Amino acid sequence: MKVEFAPINIPLKRRIQTVAVLQWIFSFLLLAEFCCGFFVILILGNFWFLAVLYLLWLYLDWETPCAGGRRSQWVRGWAVWKYFREYFPIHLIKTSELNPNHNYLLGFHPHGVLVAGAFGNFCTDPPFKNLFPGLTPYLHIMPIWFGCPFFREYIMSAGMVSASKESVSHVLNNKGGGHASVIVIGGAEESLNAHPGSLTLNILKRKGFIKMALKHGAHLVPVFSFGENELFKQVANPKGSWLRNVQEKLQKIMGFALPLFHARGVFQYSFGLIPYRQPIHTVVGSPIPVKQNLNPTTEDIDQLHALYLQKLKKLFEEHKSNYGIPAHKSLIFE
């Protein structure tokens, strides 16, 4: 394979952008394991008492990821995130006002490989804050990550909270409104479909978010992130293949998927784990008003779910021509 090296005279700003994305990749893929390893070293070493103190803290603080987390405006405002967003670049597009007197449930699509658009738009400042003043976004992720020592503190500081029912309820229960739960609807399973050009969404059987919106009277907002699936190439894993079967079995066992992806490196463009410089345009749609229903029936849930799919498809169709999607291509719901 011929290696295409990056030019030597690349501007310093672009180098900094690459470093910013490199640290994000490290954080996403390895920081949790690094933190767990460090914790084990503390236990086995001379500083075991620090590990005991942290375990006590963990016990007392265990429910925080389900109770709104512990965000840090300082962490969310780090300069590194500005360079991270500029690398792709990441854009947040507003199509309608979101009244801060209400609570909202934003359905984010598609998952992509590493949900870069969701992180860049909802876990860093100031994109969302500038466009939707008065609203506080909470990105819900798998509960398993909040069991990692030290790592949990870092992700909570960025505004991430658990994706458990208790956590979503806590966010949407805010009296007076002003909260926005952001849920990546397709989940880990959808990441296995994250190939360039793919428009397949795992959503037909995912109705839990609809039930939560009904129970809390939270307005539903479809969000589509154009370019999310273009950041990496993934090893071919069509449904029914041995690789896909293995990935799906591991996903059911561990709770998260293991897509085999690749892109570019730091000093060359031929291989590596750094995403391609492909623009991401995250379009926030118009809210679907939801009247609170503490005991929604299956019919109620199905009816609102169908309306949500209709609004999501409309959002995609209205904006796809702006972001290089051919006119004949449409979303595929599975």
UniProtKB/TrEMBL annotation:
Its main location: endoplasmic reticulum. GO terms for molecular function: 2-acylglycerol O-acyltransferase activity; diacylglycerol O-acyltransferase activity. It is a multi-pass membrane protein. InterPro entries: DAGAT. Signal peptide: none annotated. Keywords: Acyltransferase, Endoplasmic reticulum, Glycerol metabolism, Glycoprotein, Lipid biosynthesis, Lipid metabolism, Membrane, Transferase, Transmembrane, Transmembrane helix. One of its GO terms (cellular component) is endoplasmic reticulum membrane. It is found in: Endoplasmic reticulum membrane. Its EC number is 2.3.1.-. It is an enzyme of class 2 (transferase). The chain crosses the membrane at residues 21-41. GO terms for biological process: diacylglycerol biosynthetic process; glycerol metabolic process; triglyceride biosynthetic process. PANTHER family: 2-ACYLGLYCEROL O-ACYLTRANSFERASE 1, DIACYLGLYCEROL O-ACYLTRANSFERASE. This is Acyltransferase. It comes from Catharus ustulatus. The gene is LOC117000911.
